[in-house]
Specification:
With 313 residues, the chain is α/β, with parallel strands linked by helices. It has helices at 2-22, 27-51, 71-76, 104-108, 124-134, 142-150, 169-175, 179-191, 214-221, 232-235, 251-262, 281-284; strands at 116-121, 160-164, 194-195, 200-202, 225-227, 239-247, 267-275. It has a domain at 78-284: Rossmann fold. Bound molecules: zinc ion (2 copies).
């Protein structure tokens, strides 16, 4: 019963949120719709808590707020730690490098992006959280995922323009919402940044990239993602935060970064909830399609989240 209710409310909320996010021309209308939804949500929160007591989305233990995790599941999440690569923030293992060092993959192929802000390293706990969020349509988890990401943003004083990785319209229609767009909205809200949900468009559907080699991925993505001509002016000179839920091979985000830089973005930092480390890719399969779970052993210096579990505002 509870599951059915969550499916109904989750799906309806997801579709309503996506519609509001994709309404065009309409940033003002977006804000109005989402503010109203938030107000209604807050007003009914005590009633929902009473009828459906909050439970941890990973293990079902009773917790204090609808959108948190229990202490045990919280402690299973692993966030990247220092020292890390100066270009991509890939954490180094013990004795591998110090802050300011550039990792081997970045030396071999210098990235176009200006850094990766990953909320967690991909492991079983973050995988299950992404599954609940994306495929379980529990979009109420977005503020929690966003909070872990925003804690990792570089303290550079930039005013971010938050842009989600786009979904092709067929996949959007099937899923009912773009998980990256809802995450981007939560990040924009938490950081007081501008949200540009339709800055990037997917011009053609792309196959599942898991299992494809680097060249095959590049072929599949060629010409697939572009900056919307209507948004080019806003991209020019901006510091962009490119948002996705999971960063796997980085092929899709690379194409997005390329398009944004070509449109004149001054800086593009990738923001993701779960980052698969390069060495785990062979085992990763297609995480975007969630067909395989990588055994993404965190480096020895990886650490547990320092943010106390609490209800997002
Ligand atoms: Zn739990
Ligand atoms: Zn690197």
């Amino acid at each position: 019963m509870r599951r059915a209710w969550e499916k109904i409310t989750g799906g309806a909320l997801a579709i309503a949120a996506t519609r509001a996010l994709l309404a065009s021309p309409a940033q003002a209308r977006q804000h109005g719709a989402m503010t109203l939804a938030r107000q209604i949500g807050s007003a009914f929160a005590p009633l929902v808590d009473l009828v459906y007591p909050p439970r941890c989305p990973l293990c079902g233990t009773g917790i204090a707020a609808q959108t948190g995790l229990c202490t045990d599941c919280w402690s299973e999440l692993v966030i990247p730690a220092e020292p890390c690569c100066a270009r991509c923030q890939r954490p180094f293992g013990e004795g591998e490098g110090t802050d300011g060092t550039i990792c081997a993959p970045c030396l071999a192929s210098p990235p176009q992006h200006d850094g990766i802000a990953a909320g967690t390293l991909y492991n079983d706990a973050s995988r299950r959280l992404v599954l609940a969020y994306k495929h379980g349509k529990r979009i109420a988890l977005a503020p929690l995922l966003a909070r872990l990401i925003t804690a990792r943003l570089p303290a550079c004083g930039d005013r971010w323009l938050v842009v989600p990785v786009p979904l092709h319209r067929v996949r959007l229609w099937r899923r009912g919402f773009n998980q990256a767009a809802i995450l981007a909205q939560a990040i924009a809200r938490q950081t007081g940044s501008d949200l540009l949900v339709d800055a990037l468009v997917r011009r053609k559907p792309t196959p599942i990239l898991g299992g494809l080699g680097r060249k095959a991925r590049a072929r599949a993505l060629a010409g697939a993602i572009a900056v919307s001509p209507a948004r080019a002016k806003q991209i020019r000179g901006a510091s962009v935060l490119l948002v996705d839920d999971v960063l796997t091979s980085g092929a899709t985000s690379e194409v997005c970064v390329h398009a944004l830089k070509r449109a004149g973005a001054q800086k593009v930092v990738i923001a993701c909830f779960a980052r698969v480390l390069d060495e785990a890719l062979d085992a990763a399969g297609d995480i975007a399609g969630h067909e395989a779970a990588p055994q993404n052993a965190p480096p020895q210096n990886a650490k547990r989240p320092e943010i106390a579990p609490r209800a997002p505002t």
